[in-house]
Amino acid sequence: MIELNAIHRAYRSDEVETTALADIDLSVQAGEFVAIMGPSGCGKSTLLNILGTIDRPTSGTYLFEGEDIAKAPEAQLAKLRRDRLGFVFQSFNLIDELTIAENVALALAYRSMPAREKRERVDAAMDRVGIAHRRNHHPHQLSGGQQQRAAIARAIVGEPKLILADEPTGNLDTENGAQVMDILTRLNADGATIVMVTHSPAHADIARRTVHMLDGRILSAVRRAA
Amino acid sequence: MPRLAWIALYRSLTRDKLYAALTIGGLAVGIATFLVLALYVRFETSYERWIPRSDRIYRVDTAVQFPGSPFNGAYPATMAGLFEMMREDFPGLIGTRIRGGDRAIGERGGAVLRGGVATTEDVAQVDPSFFDVFALPMVQGAGAGALADPTAALLSRSAARRYFGSADPIGQTITVSMDAPANYHVVGVFEDLPKNSELHLAILIPIPKTPPPSEWTWYKWGTASVATFLRFETPEAARAFAAKLPPFIDRRAKVDFGPGASRWLSQPLVPIADTHLKPMGSESASRQLMVATLGTIGLLTLLIGIVNYVNLATARAGLRAREVALRKVVGASRAALIGQFLGEAIAAVAIAALLGLMLAEVGLPLVNAAGGTSLAMPYGWALPLLAGVTLVVGLAGGFYPALVLSRFPAATVLASARAPGGGNAGARLREALVVLQFGLAIAFLIGTVVMAVQMRHLRAADLGFRREGLITIASLADPKIGQDQARTMLRALQALPGVQSVGTANIAPGGEGTSNIDIVEQPGPPGTGPMLRLVSVGPGFFDTYRPRLLAGRLFDNAHAADDSSDWKRWNLGRNVILNRQALATLGFRTPEEAIGKTVGNPRPRTIIGVIDELRFFSARTADTGSYYMYTPNAVYLHIGAVRFTGDPRAMLDKVEESWRRIIPQVPFRGDTADHRLADLYREDERATRLVGIGTGLAVLIGCVGLWGLAAFSTARRVKEIGIRKALGASASDVVRLLVGQFLRPVLLANLLAWPLAWFAARTWLAGFGDRIALSPLYFLGASLIATAIAVVTVLGQSLRASRAAPAWALRHE
């Protein structure tokens, strides 16, 4: 499904050039659950952002379902994100001014489909993560675990092929973290491809493959039997 | 303010220079606009207040109220003999007449003759008691009592320099011509009159004790040829005198008006300070309206600047929440914080006020050029005003941000990663303020469009004659010119190469000449009947103006009854020509129906022709029905008109050259008809330009504010934009979102602007007899322009925000 070849990402500030990713090769098959681990600043999130097309590599190729999108125009990437990707962030990234239901519906806002169908899909997604009873609340009225479940509902409402999760349990306590991992496992079992950045070895173990990173490079990939 | 507070202010201004430029710059432009327009209002309302004891001086007007007369209204003059009669009946009355030298009445000044050649001068004949009323400051000699000598003259400082250079003017002789040339000796010099005066006095000479031969209206009630001023020590005395006037008029005006003359004629007393802005004759109160409009625009532009300041200040207030929280933690009281932010606001407004003053000084020459004014900034007036504005705006503008900022709860602010932004209420207030700002700006814009279109309409209006290729010579009507001299002049004009025809009439385009009304008596009680303007025309008039003939024929020397030159034969029945409106006034349905009919009882007038309107007067005065009489042997009291081909400038020079050769004793006064007509609307054109400038600046400040708000709001929404983009929003989705957010208040602003502008435009247009219809297109057009400007203003930032990489945006706090 995903094929990264010689991906390089450098940030330039005034004088310093920092290499965030160097020579990354990675492939992810459809239906996989991949965990990315590594210390802070090793490039995990940058890699995830590039996978999610919300950041661009400085050089290298990125094949998404066989198509090179490393240099694709922004409009095409927006369409790709809209139709095939779902994001879950560590800090949830819910919009305070909108209710939970509206936040979830935001992922469908840029698609043309009948309003009724949108409503049904939003309800279904919220049901699936057990947040439907909080639909009319604002994010700051919810606990962290509830917020993250809402964020997952938003990520899956568009029925994406690939879910990208950036430390989805990082801001949660153990119990809430476990609940979120349960949801992700279920989604993977239902056929979604998941790439997750995590600091938690326990949560990484749930994934079928773990990629270890250090200083912008991939050290090793551990594959477990399903 | 303590030192640290100054540092905080300095840093908050320099940290974000763009923000400082927007808030302070916007307010400075608002203050500059307000200053300049306040200066204009101050100038317009300061007329005659410079005269010592001006609050005791009253002008006597002549107000006519005939049922159905188009000439109804108050005129700023009286019959020449009125003051004599008043003094006979009310001994001890203090007052003076000014004959000539007052351009409000018409260009009735005289001339100074040197070497047989006359030059126009602001000569005024006044009563010896002039200085009892107008205590003009003297440079040399004494004013009071000087004019009891019938050959004495007083000169203004600049007139003295003009005629005698550096020599001592006292005792010199000067030849002045009013009714006829005469020699006067200079007995004194008075200071030049300031610009804020309707009086134009360069030479004062005594008014004749008996009427000059040409002045048959000297004691004719209902005429208005001299300005009469009275002095009363108290307003009560003035009121008491005014109460005695109706019986006086009934007693004295019986000769011309019959019994009960005060029903139709009154002589109201107007305080001299009110005279400049008072409407004249049948004109509407357009000057007052204009001064009020420009004053309002100044105030509202200042308001827009203040709104801008408040808006950006509250929007930015949240960014200083952490500073506020920390100050609270170290023990600042709420009052101390409010004091700090109010102090900051006042300091910022003071900077804006200084900048505004500079802008106003820089802009004044431009405004003077556009508005035809000669405004200057008096600092004794401007600085206290600015200090007041600074305090008021500083307190008003700083109060809300100070309140919001000082209310932030310290703990929450310090604990949270995000800065509070005044919440939804703050956002709603800002949106309401943007609605107010743009509402006013759009209303101004609509007003400017309507004024510009109306002015264009007036310039292009069909006047019934071609205004190009036409020169009028007003000085031909001077009574000092004899019949033979006038005829010689007309023949010389006819002989000039390029001249097609030469005609004369007692009126000319631009409103010059004499206005006569005539009652066309109907069978029934005497004195009733429709009123028409009586126009007396000489040979060549119709050839020169070429009106459309609707029925019948024009005047012709072959018909003896066409000639009305000898008024003693009028009772025998004369032929007249009507215009279209007179047709309706007299009750004829078609032009053909009127031909051959005779109207008027003691003086039968037979209608031989009907022409379409020739519009010589301002569209501000209602058009009147007119009839034309042919007076080929009275051309010397007529204004000349020359129809020509070729360059107008060259033709005017040639006409003036002939004039100097044939009639050197009277100064030449002539101009192209299109100049004279443009003069009618000069004040309106100026006002339109001033309103246009005010509007431009108001829109500019509005845009600056919108730009600042968009910058602020976009910066705050960076993260949201990142989320939306991660969820698949395209760049155009984001632009649409951001532009839409700002479009809503701008569209709402139209709801505020339209009724406001409609009401104002309708009031202004009501002052014109010939006016454009208030089309919805002006409203839609102005709104479209404002909306387009607003979109362009926020588009740049929206585009930039939409292009930012979402990964960066998501990290943004």
TrEMBL record, chain A:
Gene Ontology molecular function: any one: ATP binding
Pfam families xrefs: ABC_tran (PF00005)
Domain ABC transporter as annotated: residue spans: 2-225
Keywords recorded for this protein, A-Z: ATP-binding, Cell inner membrane, Cell membrane, Membrane, Nucleotide-binding, Transport
Keyword Transport among record annotations: yes
SMART domains documented for this protein: AAA
SUPFAM superfamilies xref list: P-loop containing nucleoside triphosphate hydrolases
Entry superkingdom: Bacteria
Signal peptide: none
Name under which the protein is recorded: Phosphonate ABC transporter ATP-binding protein
Source species: Sphingomonas pokkalii
Automatic annotation (TrEMBL), chain B:
Alphabetized UniProt keyword annotations: Cell membrane, Membrane, Transmembrane, Transmembrane helix
GO molecular function, one term: transmembrane transporter activity
Domain MacB-like periplasmic core stretches: 21-243
Broad class of the protein's primary localization: membrane
Chain ranges passing through the membrane: 20-41, 289-310, 345-367, 379-400, 432-453, 690-710, 746-765, 777-796
Pfam families found in the cross-reference section: FtsX (PF02687), MacB_PCD (PF12704)
Location of the protein in the cell: Cell membrane
Domain of life (superkingdom): Bacteria
Domain ABC3 transporter permease C-terminal: 296-408, 695-805
Record membrane topology: Multi-pass membrane protein
GO cellular component: plasma membrane
Name of protein: Transporter
